[in-house]
Amino acid sequence: MRPRNRAGIAATAVRSAPHEVPRIPDDPAGFPRIPLAVQDTLGPQLTRAAEAALADAGVTRAGAAPMGCVTASHHATAATAQYIAAVLDGAGPRWLAPQCFLHYSPHALTGRLCIDLGLDGTALTLTGPASGVDALGYAAMMVESGRCSGVLVAAAHWPTPPPAGPDRTTRLTVAVAVVTPDGDRARLTGWQPGGGHPAVRPATDPDAAALRTAELPDVTEPLRALVSWQDGPDRAGTQLTAAGSRLTVLPGGRR
After folding, report:
1. Alpha carbon 68 to chain centroid, angstroms
2. Are 53 and 152 in contact (CB under 8 A)?
3. Could you tell me the pTM of the whole model?
4. What sign results for the dihedral spanned by CA atoms 214, 220, 226, 232?
5. Which pLDDT tens digit goes with each residue over 39-89?
6. Which residues pair with 180 in a beta bridge?
7. Are residues 216 and 160 in contact, defined by beta-carbon separation less than 8 angstroms?
């Protein structure tokens, strides 16, 4: 029997800064030229973080070609949905450029990364409050099974401001990890996918209670916690959790 591959972290990258969500123009003539939040702001930030992580892992564009891609988000593309609704409900034109609908889908993030970076492996988009942990777990499974020689894991969090109001700036956070069989910064194991929806778990589950009061879970938090743990002095393992999903992280060969 062929031994299973080990799944480890080869590199990580995190970017977080306030960004203004594009405004809906008062003049209908401005609609064809308005920047799209996902296409013009979120997408480029995610690509830059991914490029930085791949470079840190020593992966060239040719080396990235067989890699897979898993992205995690939870309403990170809602700004485009808000734009679409404003155009259709407003007094302006009743038409929309096709890219509006492309960048409404969370899979637009996955597609952009695969196209921008030349990734040709299995591509998957996960959504929901547990998607940050599940993206890392699913990537580990893909590497361990030999389905992919490596996987780029990316998560995005960008709360959408109310459609009316002067302040259109919220914090955009993207986090990326490169998972490979020889990643020596941390080892991933013991993925236990949960549910993410309170209805599928007992009411006494503390994660379920938290979900009822949470406004918008930040799915980049598990990846950022992984980075903080890597940079810390603790040599013991740790567990990443979110909405019932769990993943064990063990020390790798390099810190």
Report:
1. 14
2. yes
3. 0.86
4. negative
5. 888 999 999 999 999 999 999 999 999 999 999 999 888 888 888 877 777
6. 8
7. no
